[in-house]
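Fill in residues.
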């Protein structure tokens, strides 16, 4: 995997490569990105983060509606992100989706480990055969759609799944 090109805007005060507020019209593909701040960025014309690995990155308030967000995301912040209709895949480890809009998003065989969904909109989701291990769903605005054949390990309470299709769901204590 290649590295993300150096930002023409330099570094943020926190030492992240600064791509805040940019508009991306090309996919971020097959890249390994670390400590990159794409907060408030807009993905358009089919741009996505596909088959890339991100570690410690900020995607806060990013607009990635209806795009692919796949491979591996470790300790990334998607706080307030617009991910409605997104196609999620791969692994999300220690990621924060607080106050994000994930409505009508899709994920199959996706793994979420120690992720936060506090205050997120999870209406009309299609998260099929996914694993939610130690995830925090405190204060989720809406959770509806399907989590069929998924596995929930600790974190989620069965009441939070009441608005979802739960055929084949396995709930395990932590």
């Amino acid at each position: 995997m290649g590295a993300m090109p150096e930002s023409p805007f330099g570094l943020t005060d926190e030492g992240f490569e600064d791509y805040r507020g940019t508009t991306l019209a090309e996919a971020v593909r097959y890249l390994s990105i670390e400590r990159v701040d794409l907060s408030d960025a807009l993905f358009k014309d089919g741009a996505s983060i596909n088959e890339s690995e991100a570690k410690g990155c900020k995607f806060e308030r990013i607009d990635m509606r209806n795009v692919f967000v796949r491979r591996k995301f470790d300790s990334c912040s998607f706080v307030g992100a617009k991910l409605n209709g997104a196609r999620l895949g791969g692994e999300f480890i220690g990621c924060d989706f607080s106050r994000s809009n994930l409505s009508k998003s899709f994920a199959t065989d996706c793994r979420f480990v120690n992720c936060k969904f506090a205050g997120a909109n999870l209406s009309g989701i299609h998260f099929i055969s996914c694993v939610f291990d130690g995830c925090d769903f405190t204060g989720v605005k809406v959770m509806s759609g399907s989590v069929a054949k998924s596995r929930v390990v600790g974190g989620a309470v069965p009441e939070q799944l009441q608005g979802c299709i739960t055929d084949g769901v396995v709930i395990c204590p932590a």
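The chain is about 0% helix and 40% strand.
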